[in-house]
Automatic annotation (TrEMBL):
Name of the featured protein: Xylose isomerase
Annotated active site: 101, 104
Reactions catalysed, as given in the entry: alpha-D-xylose = alpha-D-xylulofuranose
Gene from which this protein is expressed: xylA
Family: Belongs to the xylose isomerase family.
Length: 435
């Protein structure tokens, strides 16, 4: 039975680039075959439960602006209504996947036992919904940053009881993810950092975080979970100094604690910007180390400097991100999760649907441009040309040599190189041809 929340809104279909229908896809055609696979299989779109259904429209200076039938989110009846609405929207969009935190789908009971009971109840209910829907679970995760118990961190908390509560919470969420057939499990350490070194033993906190993640990996194998374990970098906000600052920092952490072959990265556009990077930079860093897992697609407001989690609207940015994903071979268990939310003034149910239509279309346009660039090969040819000198036997041998031998060669051959153009503007113009 329909909840009536999206009454009057049609099922969204592909109508092509000439369509003026605001509730149709103009660029996202799930069945279009690109590089040998359907677009849906390449992009693997997911709807984020937290921003789409759990967020009430508050910001640091004001309270809720949304009035939803499942508000307040404090009992199981409304949690089930929220799930009903969620799956109605998944079906309208034809969304292949969704993602959740435990706190998004069940009301907090104030105790682990209570949370465990409501988590099991709601995931049983969601499992029943999934039996009648094509939408699958891309990943689950635990919210260990919102409740006051997490204000000093989760696995990095100075209180061992909080560490224990975190361990039990992650176990319960991994069990729930496994039960629902989730294809990944994500850990984002929103409070795994510090405000001041005056009260922080950084070495101990990092060791505890490393041990915690090893426990997660051990439990994955114990229960036979075949999905990927992913960690998500973020440089700041809410913690002033977060230990998972960016892709490179996370990779160093994973190597230090022997996890480089067990854990990959879930990268977010907005977090990349906060770290002072482009999204394609973070993707390229992860891909270069074989640690690219999945992405959270969104954007920030470049004027505010805040993690605003807006839906993507910049095709060139999206195209370059997907270009590096395709270069890395595309997703395996990962996908494109819209970690994005409508604005506080976008209060209608139609806004929730339209925002995802726009995001999916922007991603489709960017993806098609990325695939066309990869097929054309212009960027790869330019790279090959720029580094061609390293194909010479003398150049390759130099990497196995030593400073004294190289110096003797420079003197003997009177090596005095002239700079060569990087051709950045030519390559930027090349990209513009596709986007």
């Amino acid at each position: 039975m329909s909840t009536g929340f999206f009454e009057g809104l049609p099922t969204v279909g592909y109508e092509g680039s000439d369509s003026t229908n605001p509730f149709a896809f103009r660029h996202y055609n799930p069945d279009e075959v690109i590089l040998g696979k359907r677009m849906e299989e390449h992009l693997r779109f997911a709807v984020a439960y937290w921003h789409t259904f759990a967020w009430e429209g508050g910001d640091p200076f004001g309270g809720s602006t949304f009035v939803r039938p499942w508000h307040p989110q404090d009992d199981m009846g409304r949690a089930k209504m929220k799930a009903d609405v969620a799956f109605e929207m998944f079906d309208l969009l034809g969304a292949p996947y969704f993602c959740w935190h435990d706190a998004d789908i069940r009301p907090d009971q104030g105790s682990f036992q209570g949370n465990l009971e409501t988590l099991n109840e709601i995931t049983d209910y969601i499992g029943e919904k999934m039996e009648n829907s094509r939408t699958k679970l891309l990943w689950g995760t635990a919210n260990m940053f919102s409740h006051r118990r997490w204000m000093g961190g989760a696995s990095t908390n100075p209180d061992p009881d909080v560490f224990a509560f975190a361990a039990a919470t992650v176990k319960s969420c991994m069990d729930a993810t496994h039960k629902l057939g989730g294809e990944n499990y994500v850990l984002w350490g929103g409070r795994e950092g510090y405000e001041t070194l005056l009260n922080t033993d950084m070495g101990a906190e990092l060791d505890h975080m490393g041990r915690f993640l090893n426990m997660v990996v051990d439990y994955k194998h114990k229960i036979g979970f075949e999905g990927a374990i992913l960690v998500e970098p973020k440089p700041q906000e809410p913690s002033k100094h977060q230990y998972d600052y960016d892709a490179a920092t996370c990779i160093g952490f994973l190597r230090k604690y022997g996890l480089e072959n067990e854990v990959k990265l879930n990268l977010e556009q907005g977090h990349a910007i906060l770290a002072g990077h482009s999204f394609e930079h973070e993707i390229a860093v992860a891909a270069s180390e074989g640690m690219l897992g999945s992405i959270d697609m969104n954007r920030n407001d470049y004027q505010s400097g805040w993690d605003t989690d807006q839906f993507p609207n910049n095709v060139p940015e999206v195209a370059l991100a997907y270009y590096h994903i395709l270069k890395a071979g595309g997703y395996t268990t990962g996908g494109t999760n819209f970690d994005a939310k409508v604005r506080r003034q976008s209060i209608d149910p139609a806004d929730l649907v339209a925002s995802h239509i726009g995001g999916m279309d922007i991603c489709a346009r960017g993806f098609k441009a990325a695939a066309a660039m990869l097929e054309d090969g212009g960027l790869e040819e330019a790279l090959k040309d720029r580094y061609a000198g390293w194909e010479a036997p003398e150049a390759k041998g130099m990497l196995e040599s030593d400073l004294a031998t190289i110096t003797a060669r420079v003197l003997e051959q009177n090596i005095n190189p002239e700079p060569k153009s990087g051709k950045q503007e030519i390559l930027e113009n090349y990209v513009s041809r596709f986007v």
